[in-house]
Input
Amino acid sequence: MNQQRERGLGPGELAWFVISILAGGGLLVHMPDAYRIAGRDAWLFMAAVGLVTAVAGTLIGVLARNFPGQTVVRFAQVLLGRPLGWLLSFVLAAYCLVASAITVRMTTEVVRSALLALTPAWLIVLILVVTSWYAAQQPILAMARMNVMLAPLLLALGMGAALTALENFNPLHVRPVLTGHLVPILEGMAMGTVQVPGLEALYFFIAHVAQPQKAARSIAVGAGVMGMAVTVSALVTVGVLGASTPHYTFPILDAVKAAHLPGRLIERTETIFLMTWIVALYTRYCALFTAAVAGMTELTGIPERRLVSLPLAAVVALIALMPSTQSQARSLATAVTRLSLVTELGIALVLVLVAEWRAREKVGK
Output
């Protein structure tokens, strides 16, 4: 067992790691957009997004199986040639960096809207960036296992708090199903308006998997579990808030606020959900930032990660503070999210197809 842990993440650990980097993503930030697109079928829309995410994760797992012990920086250059492979790896690392900055800003907005309304945004961003910069100096598996350790607790607390809102659930808010047929859902999926970025970090973590042959199944399980959790939470949100869902900044939080447990066991269940959400966003941010640092370090050939992580941390802070209002921050988050349909699914699909073509070509010779 000790040897397995030294080699890398086991199958179960990889599944929990996937859950940790997807938690706090699309449902919490993009639920209003999902309702505008699909109406009362927004929960089905989120289920479809979860399915696409699971497919993308499975494809990345296939790459881990075909190229054990390698990050995208190495196998992309083997498959596409050195210049194009290097450029593709740079794009993925840069996307992880920008996505981490967006996560920092979303975390800041949650903290300010629910806890520290008068605290300046720059101070919260600074605290998040400095702590993650320190985490990025540690061995990459240490950060990954921190996420693995927190993921079960976050999932249990988050789902438990979300399900308390069922006391206010109104079935009429979600009936009939497919009121606008599948067209709005399919159009929204094609536009990539609501996606769950985060799996891009796996391109740089799959080199640290102990059993690459099981990576695809582990990632699919992790993404599937998180997809089901998102679907249930979205269903609860729509069932509680109904047509007013898009008018809330963070609908799921307002749905949980209306719940009251009997016997005053816990007076404010949204507090549990809020703290779980903040920690989930932070673990997600650490994974994305660490992936960006690892990728840029390998791409540049700089021997020490701290020399790369410091300027990257400054870039994260600048991007996170760029939007001056919450609406601008959400617009930036939506723009970055739309690209994840390419970075998660598109690039993984292309690399798997090229790898399959090269393998058949090799056998033919």
Observations:
- The two ends are 41 Å apart (CA to CA).
- The CA atoms of residues 7 and 249 lie 43 Å apart.
- The first helix runs from residue 2 to 7.
- The domain at 9-364 is CATH 1.20.1740.10 (Amino acid/polyamine transporter I).
